[in-house]
Design brief:
Elements lengths: L1 E9 L2 E6 L2 E9 L2 H10 L5 E5 H6 L5 H10 L4 E4 L5 H9 L4 E4 L1 H5 L1 H10 L4 E8 L2 E4 L4 E6 H6 L8 E6 L11 H10 L4 E4 L5 H7 L7 E6 L1 H4 L5 H8 L10
Parallel strand pairs: 1-4, 1-12, 4-5, 5-6, 6-7, 7-10, 10-11, 11-12
Antiparallel strand pairs: 1-2, 2-3, 7-8, 8-9
Helix pairs in contact: 1-3, 9-11
Length: about 250
């Protein structure tokens, strides 16, 4: 079970949003590379990065910051936000990304996802961001008519490495992950699921160790780490089975 620390990039800085609203950005670090090093030093083994400007614009915007992150950490990095073509995918993988996350294009052009999975085995993840059970696109600015499970099933058997599922209503507001919807999705498809949106406390970390959550690849944490609500050492010890699991659910 992997805990992915998140670096969300807006104008070259590490920020956190509430409900995906760019106007609510809280700046936590103006040096993304230093933040990436800090997460590695704390013991994390993966890094989740989102180019927020890119997600809205439809093309990579914070490329320099992502490049600095890749140079600063030895940990594998997955990146989403504004990646819409095979050439862009190839370019980012050549620069050292471990995984590219495709979100809007997975809705607009699912065949491109299938082509990418074939061209870059094990390197393609799909980001499914949902509001009220329906998939949102274009940096969460537009709603679609697609259901979460309906979209996920389009990618069964094509080689998608993981699906990052985000409940927009919970993102950045520390109300806890939508475990019911996340686990329902994990049970509906064979693709590994990464939970995202709202991870709030050690109680969510403990929840990750429960039997029905073992289908998940892991979860993403942002604001709770930056605000100190989750101690990295304690969280990682629980997930690695090195600390007693307290009843805090």
């Amino acid at each position: 079970m992997i805990l992915f620390p998140a670096i969300d990039l807006k104008d070259g800085q590490c920020v956190r949003l509430k409900h995906g609203d760019m106007a609510t950005a809280t700046i936590y670090n103006d040096d993304p590379a230093a933040q990436a090093r800090a997460f590695e030093e704390q013991g994390f083994e993966w890094l989740h990065v989102v180019d927020l400007n890119g997600a809205f614009k439809g093309q990579s915007v914070n490329s320099a910051a992502v490049g600095a992150i890749l140079k600063a950490t030895k940990n594998p990095v997955q990146l989403g936000g504004g990646i819409r073509t095979l050439d862009q995918i190839e370019d980012w993988l050549d620069r050292g990304l471990a995984r590219v996350i495709l979100g809007t294009v997975a809705v607009r052009d699912p065949d491109l996802v299938k082509q990418a999975c074939k061209a870059f085995p094990g390197k393609i993840a799909v980001g499914i961001d949902a509001k009220g059970g329906k998939v949102a696109v274009e940096g969460w600015a537009e709603a679609s008519s697609l259901g979460v499970i309906e979209l996920a099933r389009k990618f069964e058997g094509v080689g998608v490495a993981a699906i990052i599922y985000t409940d927009i209503d919970r993102d950045g507001v520390l109300t806890g992950i939508n475990w019911n919807a996340t686990i329902d999705l994990a049970e509906a498809v064979s693709i590994p699921i990464i939970a995202s949106g709202g991870l709030a406390s050690i109680a969510d970390i403990v929840r990750m160790t429960m039997p029905d959550a073992q289908k998940l690849e892991g979860a993403i944490s942002g604001r709770a780490l930056y605000d100190g609500r989750i101690d990295p050492a304690e969280a990682l010890a629980i997930l690695q089975g090195k600390a007693a699991v307290e009843t805090r659910l």
